[in-house]
Design brief:
By secondary structure, this protein is of the alpha/beta class. Helices cover 47% and strands 11% of the residues. A 6-stranded parallel sheet has the order 4-5-6-7-8-9, with helices on both faces. It has a 3-stranded parallel sheet with strand order 1-2-3. The longest helix has 21 residues. The chain is globular, with a radius of gyration of 19 Å. Bound molecules: zinc ion.
C-alpha cells in the first residue's frame, strides 16, 4: 500500500462500504428496510444520493448469475442505472461458433425487449477467427455496440488483430476479462486461470500496437492486484478500467483515479451491480468525478462511434 490510512478515514470508509453492502441487500430484495423508511435516515439519504447520478453500467451480463433481462432491469431501477451494457460471453474454454452465436442471440433479444435500457455487446471466440468476423457483421447489423471477450486467447494474441481492427473501424470499445494473476488472496488462486488469461502487461502491449483502439480492462474489483494493474496501465491512454467486482476493498477507485486519471475509470457492475455503486460512495470523489465515472466517461466512448446516450 502506498497510502497510509488513518483510523478515522478507515472507519468512515468502512461505514460507507458497509452501507454499500446493505444497499446491496436491499437491491437484491433481501431487505427493503432502507426504502420503507424503517431503517436509519442515514441509509435513506444514501439511496437518495445514489439515485441522483445518471449511470451507465459499462459491464453487465444477461444469462450469468445476475439472471435474465428482467432481473438486470430490476437492479438498474433500484440503483438508478439508466443504461446497462449487456453481454453474454462464452465462459468455457471449449467454445464454438454455435455457442457464441446463441449467446449473442440472447443479448439481441434482451435489447429488443428493453431498447431504452440496454446496449448489447457481441461476443466471439477468436480461435474461430473467420466465424468471429462474420458474426461481428451480423451483430453490428442488428445494432450491437462493442465487443466482450473472455479468456480463450490473450488480448494481444495475433488471432485477435483483425477483430481489433474491425472494432477500430467501428469505433467500438473492446471489453476484455482480466484475472487475478498477481493476487492478494494467495499464489495458489492464480493457478486456476489458464495461460491465455490476459494480464495488465498484455493490455499495455496491445494498446501500444493499436493506439486507435479502445480497451476496457475488466473488473478492477475482481480479485486481482488492483494497485499493480493501475500502475502497469498508467501510460496506456487507450485502456480504460471498470471498477466492477465483488471486492469492495478500500481505496480501489481513488487509487485508479490517481494513477489513470478521472477520465479512464468507468462504473461497472458485472455480476453484482450494487458493490460498484457502494464503492463509488466510499471513494473520496468530487461531484464532477462521480458524474464522469458513473456516466460521462462511458458516454464519451460511445460518442466516438455516434452511439451515445443523449
Ligand atoms: Zn463480466
Amino acid at each position: 500500500m502506498t497510502h497510509d490510512i488513518s483510523r478515522r478515514s478507515f472507519l468512515r470508509n468502512t461505514a460507507l462500504s458497509t452501507a454499500g453492502l446493505m444497499l446491496g441487500g436491499s437491491v437484491a430484495g433481501c431487505s427493503s428496510q432502507a426504502e420503507s423508511g424503517s431503517s436509519s435516515d442515514y441509509l435513506i439519504n444514501i439511496m437518495e444520493k445514489v439515485r441522483r447520478y445518471r449511470k451507465i453500467n459499462s459491464h453487465a451480463h444477461i444469462g450469468l448469475s445476475v439472471g435474465g433481462p428482467e432481473d438486470q432491469i430490476d437492479f438498474a431501477n433500484r440503483l438508478g442505472i439508466d443504461i446497462s451494457v449487456i453481454s453474454r460471453p462464452v465462459t468455457t474454454m471449449d467454445s464454438s461458433p454455435e455457442l457464441f452465436r446463441k449467446n449473442n442471440d440472447l443479448i439481441m433479444s434482451a435489447v429488443e425487449q428493453f431498447p431504452d435500457r440496454f446496449i448489447g455487446q457481441m461476443t466471439v471466440d477468436p480461435t474461430y477467427q473467420e466465424e468471429s468476423l462474420e458474426e461481428m457483421d451480423r451483430c453490428v447489423d442488428r445494432g450491437m455496440v462493442g465487443l466482450k471477450l473472455y479468456k480463450q486467447v490473450k488480448i494481444n494474441d495475433p488471432l485477435l488483430y483483425p477483430i481489433i481492427e474491425k472494432c477500430i473501424d467501428l469505433n467500438m470499445v473492446i471489453l476484455m476479462h482480466s484475472g487475478p494473476d498477481v493476487t492478494r488472496i494467495g499464489p495458489e488462486y492464480g493457478t486456476l486461470d489458464p495461460p491465455s488469461l490476459s494480464i495488465p502487461e498484455d493490455f499495455v502491449d496491445i494498446a501500444e500496437r493499436y493506439p486507435e483502439a479502445m480497451f476496457q480492462f475488466a473488473h478492477l474489483g475482481g480479485g486481482l492486484d488492483w494497485e499493480y494493474a493501475c500502475k502497469a496501465l498508467r501510460d496506456s491512454p487507450n485502456v480504460y478500467v471498470d471498477v466492477s467486482g465483488s471486492n469492495n476493498e478500500q481505496n480501489i477507485i481513488n487509487f485508479a483515479v490517481e494513477h489513470l486519471g478521472e477520465d479512464r475509470v468507468l462504473y461497472g457492475g458485472d455480476l453484482n451491480p450494487y458493490t460498484g455503486v457502494g464503492s463509488m460512495f466510499s471513494a473520496v470523489l468530487n461531484e464532477g468525478q462521480r458524474e464522469k465515472i458513473f456516466f460521462e466517461n462511458y458516454n464519451n466512448i460511445l460518442k466516438k462511434g455516434g452511439y451515445h446516450v443523449s
